[in-house]
Amino acid sequence: MSKRETIQLFLNSVDASEYINNSHSEPIFNLPQITIPKSSVIKLGIQAAQIPHSFYNIDDINNRLTYEINGLGTQNYNIPQGNYNVNTLGFILNAATGITFQYISTTNTYIMAHALPFEIYGTSNCMELLGLQEDVDYASDMDNSIYSDRSINLFPIKNICLLSHNFITNNVSTTDTSLANYLLSIPNNTPSNSIIYYTNSSQLLTNVNSITNITSFHVKLVDQRGRLIDLNGHHWSVVIELHIFPK
């Protein structure tokens, strides 16, 4: 090979050979063997992607509230998965726990109150939904109230990151500095029940490690914190371009 060779991979999760843990966000594709000459330089580009915004703003990564009322023992409540706003979230939490959630629109915060003293524990994974700090325990004040000390965030998935265990890159993620498999981050800037489109208009390429052949391709969709995204049974597609340069 005396000049650059370009190979495009058109991957649709509906055609996957295997799904890790039955998740459409982590498919493995069996491919005809792609042979790459030794000592080649490989650059990879994500040319296009179509990902359904079918994930909920509350699912099993952020739906657990751990709390205690009047010292009577820790309780866990799992919010049913779905899409919520500040009012529907407050309503369902009040119905399940007896704690009222009064929304303050001017500050985008909650006042949480109960007739008895109560605590919300930092082991909850829904703290940002309530405007509370993660890993911090909150005890009610003299009025049996807890106040959000930061703005409520009901949009926990800000970016969709595409990883592949086939390659090692020079990219770095602060989420997990031991991993060098991040290929791309796509902003989540569409409403629920729509499609997130990505096109590589700048022709961005990533240097990857040299390999001699590819017989399967393992890809993964995670959020900005490295958590696997639940697409609720929907499929997605991506076009990956390999540029192979002779050394």
Structural commentary:
With 247 residues, the chain is mainly β. It has one helix and 17 strands. It has one helix at residues 86-97, and strands at 5-12, 18-19, 27-35, 41-52, 64-69, 75-78, 100-104, 109-113, 118-120, 138-139, 145-147, 159-164, 182-187, 195-199, 206-208, 213-222, 237-245. The longest helix has 12 residues, at 86-97. It is elongated, with a radius of gyration of 23 Å.
Helix-strand topology string:
EEEEEEHEEEEEEEEEEE
Q: How many whole angstroms does the radius of gyration measure?
A: 23 Å
Number of helices: 1
- Quick check: average pLDDT? 92
In terms of per-residue confidence, which ranges show pLDDT below 50 for 5 or more consecutive residues? none
Structural class: mainly beta
Main sheet summary: 5 strands, antiparallel
CA distance, first residue to last residue: 10 Å
Q: What is the helix content?
A: under 10%
Range of strand content:
35-45%
Number of β-strand runs: 17
Dominant shape = elongated
Write the layout of secondary structure elements.
Elements: E1 5-12, E2 18-19, E3 27-35, E4 41-52, E5 64-69, E6 75-78, H1 86-97, E7 100-104, E8 109-113, E9 118-120, E10 138-139, E11 145-147, E12 159-164, E13 182-187, E14 195-199, E15 206-208, E16 213-222, E17 237-245
Antiparallel strand pairs: 1-17, 2-3, 3-16, 4-14, 4-15, 4-17, 5-6, 5-9, 7-8, 8-11, 9-10, 12-13, 12-16
